[in-house]
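User: Structure tokens for this complex, please. No commentary.
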Amino acid sequence: MKNLRNHMGIILPILVVAGLTIWPTITDSVSTRESAFTILKAIALASSLNILLGYTGYVSFGHIVFFGFGGYVGLYFINDQGLSIWAGMLIGGIASGILAFLLGKAILRLRGAYFALATIGINEAMKAFINNFDLFGGPIGMTLNFKVYKAYGGAAQALEMAFYVMAGLAFVALLMSYLVRTSKFGLGLLAIRENEDAAEVMGVRAPDAKTWAYVLSAIVPGIVGVLFFFKNGNVEPHSAFPLNSSIELLVMVMLGGQGTVLGPIIGAFAYQGMRGFLVTSDFFKDIQLAVSGILLLLIVLFIPSGAIGWLRQRIPALRRVLA
Amino acid sequence: MTILLSVQGVSKFFGGLQALLNVTFDLPEGQILGLIGPNGAGKTTLFNAINGVYPPSEGRVIFRDKDITHAKPYDHARMGMARTHQIVQPLNDLSVRDNVMVGACFGHENQNLTNAAKIADEVLDFVGLAIKTDQLAGSLNVAQKKRLEMARALAARPYLLLLDEVLAGLNSSEIDGMIQTVLKIREQGITIIMIEHLMKAVMNVSDRILVLDYGQQIAEGSPEAITKNEKVIEAYLGDPKLAQQLLEEE
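Assistant:
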């Protein structure tokens, strides 16, 4: 019983993801499924970014690089080497993890704004590299051979399957976020976020811990990238490495509450909902990014701990439920 | 007597500034070594050199028979060295218990979370912060933050504890409480080096005292010998009458 009480924090996140998963089945509509797919994708990416941003305190403006890079590598193996989507996802996730490990060794020694700037540079450098990398189709990118979908019972079935796989990935991301949050490793990360020098004096191996946090935050985005471009049928440099998506991810994590398990999930939900409204409205459709910029500004100014963080501060009784 | 820590000819230069010059001493297990000296004498720099924050430019630091001169602070922590900071460094957005658990989890006993929580509660009780356990560390006052620093260091169950001005900024009743705590820590068999400006406190508590001035070690010995040492009186205390006065007043 006590064990169950200690793990109440994961109940709400699971309910949200489960609700999103069964929502399209209830309404039985493809457009609902597409909306839910987008939200689940945002939840998976935002929860992953939260491990680095929320727990470790390192702001990455280029987290989408792992989504794009993993997606490219996975799609190459599916399309050109004839591997299954499962093998492709595995390879994409591992590729992103390795990239994060190598990058982490190089740039995680930077702190604060310098790290954030380096992450932007990496995203742009990767985009430029892929643009000139012929194996991955250069500027044209790669288009999935339609025959690939046959193995999954045709394109319509493959799209439906992709939705449930995405739901599974969102679940994996939130579970990972929760396990990190409640582990000894996670306590070390929180200590680094609060005061890296003090954490080192207390024995936290900050360079190692930061690198592993970066790797963990990169794996799911890599897998999500493979699935997304598999479903899309093609990948191009500008759709794989959009800087604005990185910033939107930051807004989601900050909006919901960085450093909490539920926060990025709520943030992803709310932001995608708002975005859906903005891009379909006549007035806002061209300036929806400006709205997210203003939103970020307002969050940083008035509720820096995000919605969930704010609730936790105001109502201590909720702390057990809102992990 | 086993030598726990041996500092051999340690010097530290920051560019042209010579912060420490050829500091040498041995610290036997179970003793309290007081480290005194005027402002800017290099006391905290010596701590940083021992602790791995700034590796020494010259010389060696031997801890439990291992050369740790160029090891990182987290290696020192894992080998059983813990410290408090002169300027408190709480992990503000974590609870007091979590702060102390970091010490227990990553210190040299490398505890798991369940044990660390138990140790944290014990240690917080020991330093008198038990009622603040669930508060955020940022909400504590200075005296409580100093105790929190101490609790974090103790939770690691270190062999050697470096205390950097734990009495500064405390009122007289808080000082008495803290001195009792320091003595109790020594009873547990933990060796201590303490930097302190309060003469009365450092004289009463220390087994031996080391005096630094302009980065140089100008005297070392028992508290009585130090108060009578002319070099010390000249460099540090000014005139002998003032020394006597300081000892009596505080």
